[in-house]
Amino acid sequence: MPDPGSSPLQSSLPAAAARFGTHGHGRGIEAFGGGPPAPPVLPAAPPAPAGPPAPARTPNPAMERILRGPSGLGTAGLFLSRREEPPAPAAEAAEQAGPAAGRPVPGLYHHPVPEPDPVRVEEVSRRIKEWAVDEVELYPPEWEDQFDGFSVGRYMVACHPDAPTVDHLMIATRLMVAENVVDDCYCEDHGGSPVGLGGRLLLAHTALDALHTTKEYAPDWEESLHSDAPRRAYRSAMEYFTREATASQADRYRHDMARLHLGYLAEAAWAQTDYVPQVWEYLAMRQFNNFRPCPTITDTVGGYELPADLHAQPAVQRVIALAGNATTIVNDLYSYTKELASPGRHLNLPVVVAEHEGCDVRDAYLKAVEVHNDLMHAFEAEAAELAAACPVPSVLRFLRGVAAWVDGNHYWHQTNTYRYSLPDFW
Ligand SMILES: CC(C)=CCC/C(C)=C(\C)COP(=O)(O)OP(=O)(O)O
Ligand SMILES: [Mg+2]
Questions:
Q1: How far is the CA of 271 from the centre of ligand 2 (A)?
Q2: Which of 88, 94, 252, 272 is the most buried (most CB within 10 A)?
Q3: Residue 364 CB coordination number (10 Å)
């Protein structure tokens, strides 16, 4: 893993953080000689839950616990925000649910999460299907089983434990469904193809990042946004998102989606030329073809904002990238058998390692587990370092939200036995 010394903490972070106050705990920004913090430019987010003072610069379990926030049965209601419904009797729900389905990849470093609140899962699942069928005509009836099997309600409730209401959860859920329908229909096995993908993706991207043109041509563009399910889904999900997001959160999301689409195009270009990238090249592509746009909306879904200047800090960007990379290699590991069974060669980390590192598929898969674990440890170490260096409540809560998304994403991949199964390597 890259030398932690390369961590860009010693950059513009202190000055940026000082502008937002540090009502957090323990060593604040003064440690960098930043002097007493200026009053927050934005209304400060509610103070982070009282906890032990920030630890020394090396990560430690206390900081990891702070980043995760309270966990375990019955703690779902301990987060800062108002909840719309009383939390379900988690203990009873967990008993009824029994052990989580599926099993974790042996040797994979991860954090189990409590069973998502079944009351919220049911309501989100009901509402997202209503939206998919009645508002955006997302899929033909013959795809209904696959839509249900994706279990997007359970996914999003697991990934956003601090969402104050179901309406907030729906913001993430519509975007998750739209992102996947673009991938399925434009890139993958529901009519997707690398041929001409660039044009399709750019036009779909204008549903997120509007075309500004003349009165003569604007109507044609507006009509195009209703012409297929991917664009209907992107347009609608983005409209709901921008009602709640600030301008900088919306701009952040558009940037992250442009990254995602660039990653799709690299993957498609290599498919067209039948090129198997070097391992580092694959990891670079997967940093863009990546879950990143999902955890980075954790503040909008949580009903608060990580200020743009703090989000833009190199140290924050690095933590986001490490978390996104870890979440996406989780997908490579859990979708490995599904992709092996799909037509042609579907690139994922084990396939690329086997191709270039002269090992058999089992050793390649185990190496990919190690790569994931290294990414997770780097994410957690640098998140803890960042939390200690910049104990601004919105930063702490954002980091905790990203960590929760990482854990919820693993939970969904492990338990979605409709979609994924593990290879018989153990
Ligand atoms: C939801 C979202 C932003 C997805 C980003 C990119 C993406 C589709 C993945 C990371 C999932 O990868 P993959 O295409 O391999 O999906 P499956 O393995 O088919 O679930
Ligand atoms: Mg996959």
A1: 15
A2: 252
A3: 22
Going by CA atoms, what residue is nearest to atom 10 of ligand 1? Answer: 290
pLDDT of residue 82: 40
> How many whole angstroms from 165 Cα to the centroid of ligand 2?
30
The single-letter code of the amino acid at 414 is Q
Find where tokens 């994931």 sit: 372
ipTM of this predicted complex?
0.97
Output the CA 291–ligand 1 centroid distance in Å: 7
Cβ of 293 closer than 6 Å to ligand 1, yes or no, is yes
pLDDT value for 190: 81
**Cβ atoms 299, 306 nearer than 8 A:** yes
pLDDT of residue 92: 61
Closest residue CA from atom 18 of ligand 1 = 335
pLDDT at res. 140? 92
Which structural domains are found in the chain, ordered by start? 108-415 (1.10.600.10)
Question: Torsions phi, psi of 313, nearest 5?
Answer: -60, 135
- Residue identified by tokens 């926030």 is 69
Look-up of token digits 């994403």:
409
- 315 near 389, Cβ under 8 Å? yes
Q: 259, 268, 157: which is closest to 208 by C-alpha? A: 259
**C-beta atoms surrounding 385 within 10 Å:** 21
